[in-house]
Amino acid sequence: QGYEGLVEGGDNIKQANWLSVSNIIQLGGTVIGSARCKAFTTRAGRLRAARNLVEHGITNLCVIGGDGSLTGADIFRSEWAGLLEELVKDGQISEEVARENCRLNIVGLVGSIDNDFCGTDMTIGTDSALHRIMEVIDAITTTAQSHQRTFVLEVMGRHCGYLALVSGLASGADWLFIPESPPEDGWEDLMCERLGE
């Protein structure tokens, strides 16, 4: 469950093997879970996470996520030595254990369907999201045509219109709204005129 699993520990931290990842490639989303973790935004939460990692001898993390996850990873990395010192001071771990786990190595992978990270061709999740959007559009297009109706489809993307733009191009959408290019005044009349055609 992401950082929630690090903070809570227990059964959330377990060794993966080949059976753990067998027959999951076709699944959407994440089979290991994901959660926003308020506790991890606090030093006390990160201290618990550090304790749980040290308990399992884990000093390498692969963090897949967006801005919040990767920012959290950077903070965790920068605090690591101080967190271990605090655990030693509180008697939760020995100085020897702290020495053995003195480095925290982190690999950050951008997991965002928005495809809005500089320096990447396509972020993890974007391709899957586009496929899902196109499946939905393919499914409703015949209904729209047979009923001679206009359909409005909203896709995710928050401040990034990549999914809307690419799926709009792929489906031949008649009108498109994206945050990077807000509509000009009078767009309502122009859109009605277009749809009327």
From TrEMBL:
Under the heading InterPro entries, the entry gives: ATP_PFK, Phosphofructokinase_dom, PKF_sf
Record Pfam families: PFK
Q: Per the UniProt entry, what are the Gene Ontology biological process annotations, in alphabetical order?
A: canonical glycolysis; fructose 1,6-bisphosphate metabolic process; fructose 6-phosphate metabolic process
Q: Which SUPFAM superfamilies match?
A: Phosphofructokinase
Q: Does the keyword Ribosomal protein apply?
A: no
Could you say which cofactors this protein requires? Mg(2+)
Q: What is this protein called?
A: PFKAL protein
Species this chain originates from: Origma solitaria
- In the UniProt record, what gene is named as encoding this protein? Pfkl_1
